[in-house]
Every structure is written in C-alpha cells, then in structure tokens.
Amino acid sequence: MSDLVDGRSARIAWRRRYTGESARAVRDQLKGESGPVMPTPSDSDQTALEAAILRVLSRVVARPQRFQQPFDQTWPLDRVRPATGMVSLELQDQVLQGFLFEALPVHTPGGVRGIPGVRVIPARSHLDLRWTGPGGATSATVRLLGVSKERWRAIEPELILFSEATPLWAMGRNELHDAESTSLRTRPKDPISLMSAVLRRLWLWHEATWFATAVDESMLRVYWRHGPTHAQIVEMLQDPLCGVPGVAVASRLLSNDLRGVALALLDGSNTQHTELHDALAWANPDSMPRLPNDIVVPFEVWDQEEMRDALSRREISSVYRLLRRNGVTQRQIAALTGQSQSEVSEILKGRQVRSYDVLTRIAAGLGVPRGYMGLAYDETTASAVATLVDDSESAKRRRFLAHAARSWAMPLSEPPEPKHVAMADVRQVEAATRALRALAWQHGEGTIREALRAQLEWARTLLIPPAPDLVRERLMVAIANLEALAG
C-alpha cells in the first residue's frame, strides 16, 4: 500500500505501477503542475473524451479478431502519461490503425460512428485527438505518442478509403457536422469520471490477455483474463495515493482465469454499497461482453478460398453451408446473426439475401470483415492488403485486390445513396485516388483496374445530390483525377 511509501522517488515509482511511464516523465509532470501524484482531468469535457477513448480501447482489445490480432496478444498499451490538461497514450503499432478506425467519427445513414467532434492534429512526433465542442472551440485532448506525421500520412488514406461512410474527422478543426451536434446532445449519461480514472490507470492490466468494460447506469464494470488478481486491482484502485478518490470496488473471480470488478463513486449510503455488490452477481450472462472463447467462428474460416469466393458473391446460402462444414451449428448461426432458425434453414436451402441491411447485420453478427462482402472496406480488409509486402506475396495481393474489386462490383438491392455532398466526401475521393495511385505504382496498374472502376462508379454518384458550388468544383476536379488514373 502507498501509506508505506515515503519520499519523492518512492512516490514516483509507485505511480509508475499504474501508468508504465518513465521516472523522468513523472518528475517533469509533477514539477510543471501542482496537484496530486496521480493528476485528474481539468474539466468535464476532458473527462468525457477520456471516457470515450476507454470505450474504444475496450472494443479493440475485447474484439481482436476484427483487427487480425491473436487472443494471446501483448497488451496494446505501452504507457499512459496523465496530466491535468490531457492524457497521452503510447499504443502498440499493431492496434493503432484499428483504434483510429473505431475512434475517428464518420457519418453513416444511422448517425455518427466513432467519437463525435474529434479532429486529428498531426505533429512531428505525436498525433493529437482534439475534441471540438458545439461552439467550435477545442476543449479536450488525447495525445498519441510516437505517431509521427509520416506515420499518420501513411494511415490516413487507408482510413478514408476503407471507411464505411463520410469521414467527419477530415472536416475543418473548428467545424461540427449537424449529425455530430445531434449526437453530442443525445449522448448517454455514462459514469465518465470512473471511465477516465480507469483509462489513466490502464497500465494496471498490462499483463492481461483480454480486457473489456461495461457500463451499468452509474457503475463501471471491468473484466479481464489472466494478469493481476481481482484482489490486487481492488487494492490498487482504492489506494490513497494513486487510486481513484471516493471509489468503492467490489470484485469477483468468475472462472479460473476470468476476473471482474465493479466500480462506483459512493455517496456514503449503505444502500449504494449494497447495490454495488449486487451488481457483481452478474446473473444475466447476456450483460457480459463476449469472451474470446465464446467466438464461434475462427478468423481462419473466412480466409478459406471457397469461403472468400462465396462472400465476394454474397451467396449467403453457400456461406452458411461452409460454416456448417466447419462445425458451426444452425442454432449458433441464428444466435449470432439474430435470425430465426427457420430463416437460417430457408437460406441454407437456397433462399437469396440481397437486402443491404440484412447483409450488414449478418456480417456484423458473424464477425465477417465487411470488405470481404463488398459492403464497405473495413480496417481488417485494409490490413490484409497492407501486410502483404514481400515480392513472394505479390500473387496473394493481386488475388486479394481482384476479390475486393469483385465484391465492390456486386449489385445490392438497397444500396445506400448519398443525400448531400460535403467537402469531406471530396476529400475521400482524393484520398482514394492517392491510395490507388500508390498501389498502381508499387504493383502495376493491372492490380487496381477493377477496384478503380468500382471507385469511379461510387464517386460519380456524388454528382447527383445538391452541393455548394465550391464543393462541386473541387469534386469535379477530384473525379477528373480519378478518371485520369483509370486512363
């Protein structure tokens, strides 16, 4: 316990157990800012942004199959550097792109995905994620350490090209999309103080092999596998020096390697303390995040050549039959996709699925990378291209691009149509052109021909909706450049 810690050096060493940062970084922060050994956010906006970042990190770690990470992966966070005005994170390189894909806001037909109001500010040796409020002023920052301008420039085109919708983060720094303003007004009342506090102490779980969080009204639940015991986490979170002030923590060992804690900021009432411990009964298994061992379909199944072909043609009946061949039962398919067993049975017998909404629901439920079905290029699909870099792998790259182009070209009965065109859409066309030009330069024009044709078809649909004159002029130039690349 920290009550046995005496002296400045010992207190610095104690904080490092929570954050993984260097002794020098701790000394510099404490010297530059007055306050407790473990600093707290300066205001509610900073707290809210940090809470949203915790949600994103939790999703990335809890669902590693989406980003092609093994379940026994190393902890994705190298260190946390808390300060009063911001928090800095150093992420493992293999999760960086997946994290940005989940965190940066995009506009979908259903609203905003990602963190509304976040904008990207690159610098020489770091990348700032700054939150812009309704008034247009920047009021919160999370800094990603070690992400240089060059690294960001390499990631940016892929994030735009493989995004499922219009990238709002590419808009002006002090400009909010209407959908973002709506989302900010209706955001849920999460226990943001607890979520921010966990983010700032996330290094406590660095030996865990799996991690997830869940919000239950005013309480925050944290689950993890392996690593620290639940008793150790309770002790560290309630520590008077670097723990969470005013927190009550209840814990439970859920299995041999699965642990959980529930956190609440107490008002001193016995009733609230009882409710906290009752929350740890977790009688309803549906309230828990899905565990890695519960994932029915291994990622390798989607990489089988026969499965890839069925996915690219959106032959769901063939996909289901191949799943059955790989040991997935009809009941499991129904549970994962949200369909009835009779509906799954009809599809197995040959009923076609052409609805865009149904296809996306099936892809999400089964954990299929959407790019494999041509619904949208997602980060997993992008990663599959980006990692095939050796000359010996060039044939694989060409096959993958051919598959992707095939998927893009397949017609949908209910394709999403743009209702208006903004400058962010134009930037997406420009980024797609840059990315395809780079692939053509590295691997030959033949590797991008079909993908380029599909991208042109999409870009031309942007000429139909109304748009401001400035946006339309730049859009026409962007499409002309894309057409020039196509020859």
Structural class: alpha+beta
Net shape:
globular
Radius of gyration: 24 Å
Q: Low-confidence parts, pLDDT < 50 over ≥5 residues?
A: 64-72, 280-295, 376-393, 396-416
Q: What is the first-to-last residue Cα distance? A: 69 Å
User: For the report, how would you describe the main beta sheet?
Assistant: 5 strands, mixed
- Which band does the percent of strand residues land in? 5-15%
Mean pLDDT: 77
With helices defined by DSSP (H or I, 4 residues minimum), what is the helix count?
Answer: 20
Order of strands across the widest beta sheet? 1-2-7-6-5
Helix content: 40-55%
User: What's the total count of β strands?
Assistant: 12
Provide an overview of this structure.
With 487 residues, this protein is α+β, with helices and mostly antiparallel strands. It has a domain at 1-289. 46% of the residues lie in helices and 14% in strands. It is built from 20 helices and twelve strands. Strands 1-2-7-6-5 form a five-stranded mixed sheet. Strand 5 (118-122) and strand 6 (126-132) form a beta hairpin. Helix 3 (44-62) packs across helix 7 and helix 18 packs parallel to helix 20. The longest helix is centred in the C-terminal third of the chain and has 21 residues, at 423-443. The chain is globular and about 70 Å long. The termini are far apart.
Write the layout of secondary structure elements.
Blueprint: H1 8-19, H2 23-32, H3 44-62, E1 77-82, E2 87-91, H4 93-103, E3 106-108, E4 111-113, E5 118-122, E6 126-132, E7 138-145, H5 149-161, E8 166-167, H6 178-185, H7 192-200, E9 210-216, E10 219-225, H8 230-237, E11 247-253, E12 258-265, H9 270-279, H10 299-302, H11 305-312, H12 316-325, H13 330-337, H14 341-348, H15 356-366, H16 379-386, H17 394-409, H18 423-443, H19 449-461, H20 469-486
Parallel strand pairs: 2-7
Antiparallel strand pairs: 1-2, 3-4, 3-8, 5-6, 6-7, 9-10, 10-12, 11-12
Helix pairs in contact: 3-4, 3-7, 5-18, 11-12, 11-17, 13-14, 13-15, 17-19, 18-20, 19-20
